[in-house]
Design the sequence.
């Protein structure tokens, strides 16, 4: 469930745009107004606001945000204002073009492929082509080395059946296939990759349950016991994104916040991309895992308008 | 270009539906009216006719066609009346579930993946999930043996960049990769499959041109010199569907018609699926390859309303 708090009487896109225009104008920017408006509109409403803004003022709303705001606050508001498919295409591109391609960068591609609807995944691939003049797969191939490359290409090529249909016999059989591959430390085994990139989510959850029942351990534990490389980390994220995206994103937020300094990019991505999907459950999972509230963690690690915007997306009154 | 001849003044969907209803009613069916109406409407118009028919008479147009027509005429009219994505999903499913899975059956999947727009391919995958409660990939995996299986799975997973952008350096480099794989008779080589299933169509055409320039022969000739199995045949169809879908479909029609008897399923598929896309060019390619007209070939091998319907789709007055 979404944590977004949309007002009962939503102003028209024209009213919203005029208020935003006023917020940008004058000597100081009215950040509170921007938070109040954009932070409380869903993806469809934001789309209409973007379109209306362009029509009314012949300017891109994103450009105005970009020139009027600054720092992390600017980053997160822009991310939130993009169309979700364009946002994810841009995040994937940044990850692929970044100099360091650790699990922190590459997991964004797994999230898009395994923790989104097939419809959203296709929309991201389409946006990627439009924005970057090549396919997402081509950029994965030219920027990611093997064996992770072929896993990511298979995952983004999926168009999973999206109903809850489970065949227990297949689950048991495929749990055995996964177990064999893991036993041989071959996480990039053809059949392993095929199973995780073609089966529907419910089916895979049943397969992971069978794995635990038949072999005693959770599949992600056995994967991590194979080694400490990027391959193992990627496969663990795959399993988590399929099995429990809420736990995955709770963990992304935890590791963005833990220790000295904050990884704002990961924090933004997790909150912005899940606020309208399953943030209520992520907050629960965060509390279970960390015995403290996600809101407090955000309050402790961020400040000012940036903090207020994140808390607004988390459903708080600021 | 399409061979479809849509009247200048298209009747409203309601008028079309009422005429169709009349054509179905009474003692004899008015086949000519059905040909005149459905054979001269494009995919969007047919969609509106299907929807309007359901609303007006609370019956499915496809069901009415199915109960009122018979034989090959019924088959082709139904195929034509389906939404194109649903039609291709059904054709792919029939191919995968057929007892014999020769090139004749499996090439339909290559056509969908390599001779259609990325948008259409995704629409087919979506329709496949809705109709058959699993993904197209899952059915390929459970019905096609290796190594063709992995090639088809990769091809249907593609979402190619659909602009005409070509990098000659990459083309030359990838022509060498393809040449190496063919030289080693490894047509299912990972890099070979990756190139043909991720690069955009213009880029691949340039790669095939480089292949000819650098190695003296057309790539499809070299592929066919690797052997006479299903793998070689599939890869040849892949190259043809990418390089010149018109030649491929001209050849599908030729081989459906040549010799004793007619392969109506292939004939229907080629004409129905390409009438609105590139049938003008297919007719040209057919003439170049066979020194006779496609229309005459259809006239020679079919009869009655079936013949008239095919000729209508080919742009003839019947």
Sequence:
């Amino acid at each position: 469930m979404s944590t977004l708090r949309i007002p009962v009487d939503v102003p028209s896109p024209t009213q919203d745009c005029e208020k935003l225009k006023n917020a940008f104008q004058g000597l100081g920017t009215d950040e509170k107004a921007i938070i109040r408006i954009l932070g409380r509109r869903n993806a469809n409403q934001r789309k209409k606001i973007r379109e209306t803004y362009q029509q009314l003022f012949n300017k891109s709303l994103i450009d105005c945000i970009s020139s009027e705001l600054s720092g992390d606050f600017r980053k997160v508001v822009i991310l939130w204002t993009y169309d979700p498919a364009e946002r994810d295409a841009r995040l994937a591109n940044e990850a692929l073009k970044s100099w360091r391609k650790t699990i922190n960068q590459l997991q964004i591609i797994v999230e898009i492929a395994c923790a989104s609807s097939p419809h959203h995944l296709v929309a991201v691939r389409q946006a990627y082509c439009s924005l970057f003049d090549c396919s997402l797969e081509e950029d994965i191939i030219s920027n990611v080395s093997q064996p992770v490359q072929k896993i990511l290409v298979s995952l983004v090529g999926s168009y999973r059946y999206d109903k809850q249909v489970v065949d227990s016999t297949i689950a048991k059989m495929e749990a055995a296939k996964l177990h064999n591959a893991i036993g041989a430390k071959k996480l990039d085994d053809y059949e392993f990759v095929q199973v995780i990139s073609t089966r529907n989510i419910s089916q895979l959850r049943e397969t992971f349950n069978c794995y635990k029942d038949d072999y005693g351990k959770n599949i992600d534990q056995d994967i991590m016991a194979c080694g400490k490389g990027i391959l193992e980390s990627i496969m663990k994220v795959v399993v988590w994104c399929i099995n429990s995206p809420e736990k995955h994103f709770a963990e992304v937020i935890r590791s963005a916040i833990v220790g000295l300094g904050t990884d704002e990019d990961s924090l933004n991505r997790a909150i912005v991309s899940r606020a309208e999907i399953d943030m209520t459950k992520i907050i629960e999972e965060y509390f279970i895992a960390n015995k403290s509230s996600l809101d407090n963690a955000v309050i402790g690690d961020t400040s000012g308008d940036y903090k207020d915007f994140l808390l607004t997306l988390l459903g708080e009154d600021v």
User: Anything to note?
Assistant: Chain B has a mean pLDDT of 95. Chain B is about 70% helix and 0% strand. Chain B touches chain A through 30 residues (CB under 8 Å).
